[in-house]
Amino acid sequence: MSRDPARAATQFFGGRVCLDFANTLDWRTSNEPQELIPDYAALLSWSERRGTLPPAAIRKLKAHSASSTAVAAMQKAHDMRRDIWAISDALRDGRSVDLRLVNQMLARAPRQPDLVRQERGYRHAFAGTDVTEPLWPVLWSLTALLASDDASRIGCCEAHGCGWFFVDESPNRTRRWCSSEVCGNRERARRAYAKRKGST
Question: 1.10.3300.10, 1.10.10.10, 3.90.105.10, 3.10.560.10: which CATH number matches 5-198?
């Protein structure tokens, strides 16, 4: 995470689309969380950076950024993000996930469109006609995560106030930070300062 919202919005440390989406609230567990997708235009920008929608679909959807349907889609986006937090917390604590949340979302989901080749890899061939299209790759990522062994590897950054989730793919499951270079360095410096201050 970064105190610079523009920088934070380009940092993808979760390892899965759904967790990167969960991490679109910077400093999530602090007293001053920073919203990285405050509106539909920001959601499309995130989708573009994360590569979840083809460029042609994003261009078409931008025309609807100020519409009432886009506002409603943002409410769904923030609700989905909140549900991913609850699911991720349950997984990392070893508790059962409330599958009603996921299954309710799946009941509203469209059929997965065909895949197409893009410059950055393969993407679902969304048409750019439904303002909820940015949400579906997130949901499908979540269901794939839940149905995999990686569901037992969910971690949460230990840095004070961060709250970003990730899949811990370290051999001994010892990952502590969303990013060792960002939160890890900051937290080590904070703890060292607190230790020095306490010893004076």
Answer: 1.10.3300.10
